[in-house]
Write a structure and sequence with these properties.
heterodimer, A: 7-stranded mixed β-sheet, 4-stranded antiparallel β-sheet, 0% helix, B: 4-stranded antiparallel β-sheet, globular
């Protein structure tokens, strides 16, 4: 089943913070975060694994609550370049590869 | 180092025609994925390969879709016959590990 992302859209001014949430009804093995700019391919941001391991960009932080099957992506001191659609992809069953993506959160950062 | 290469970038075809999309993964990446993206359904995994072997094709919508990976540097996704509802952006991605996937620029397919 497709994870649910919230909010669907958010508008920020440069320098403001944002939190994007991802929730699943199924037990999760890992949560992946990607950003896609209009007309471009998705770009990897971060992966969070069951058990606490994380790997991703230094300026991006995220959390993974295994019990609640939820993840949050934290964007602090936003820059214009942060604009885009953020997708969470979830996997279960011990595999990192078979991802089910949410419908995305459109983030717009204005000057 | 070149990223994932996909061709063609745009394809317009008539209903009933065969469509072949091509992908060259990043050298050394053992995993290859095919995705489809539409406004209605979002980004969907169709099939993925490990070391040229299909591992999971449960996302392939129906028998009209087939994918092959004859060697480590080439994969194809074929639709035969194509239908208007197949119109979408098709992405190929490759990965060296259990972590990040590197997406290609995509092929925008329009079936009229």
């Amino acid at each position: 089943q497709q994870p649910v992302q919230s909010p669907q859209a958010v508008i920020l001014r440069e320098g403001e913070d944002a939190v994007i949430n991802c929730s699943s009804s199924k037990a999760l093995y890992s949560v992946h975060w990607y950003r896609q700019k209009h007309g471009e391919a998705p770009v990897f941001l971060m992966i969070l694994l069951k058990g606490g391991e994380q790997k991703g960009h230094d300026k991006i932080s995220a959390s993974f609550n295994e019990k609640k099957q939820q993840s949050s992506l934290y964007l602090t001191a936003s820059q214009l370049s942060y604009s885009g659609t953020y997708f969470c992809g979830t996997s279960g069953g011990g595999s990192n590869y078979k991802l089910t993506f949410g419908k995305g959160t459109l983030l717009t950062v204005n000057p | 180092d070149a990223g994932v290469i996909q061709s063609p970038r745009h394809e317009v075809t008539e209903m009933g025609q065969e469509v072949t999309l091509r992908c060259k993964p990043i050298s050394g990446h053992d995993y290859l994925f095919w995705y489809r993206q539409t406004m209605m359904r979002g980004l969907e995994l169709l099939i993925y390969f490990n070391n040229n072997v299909p591992i999971d094709d449960s996302g392939m919508p129906e028998d009209r879709f087939s994918a092959k990976m004859p060697n480590a540097s080439f994969s194809t996704l074929k639709i035969q016959p194509s239908e208007p509802r197949d119109s979408a952006v098709y992405f190929c991605a490759s990965s060296p590990s259990a972590y990040e996937q590197y997406f290609g620029p995509g092929t925008r397919l329009t079936v009229t």
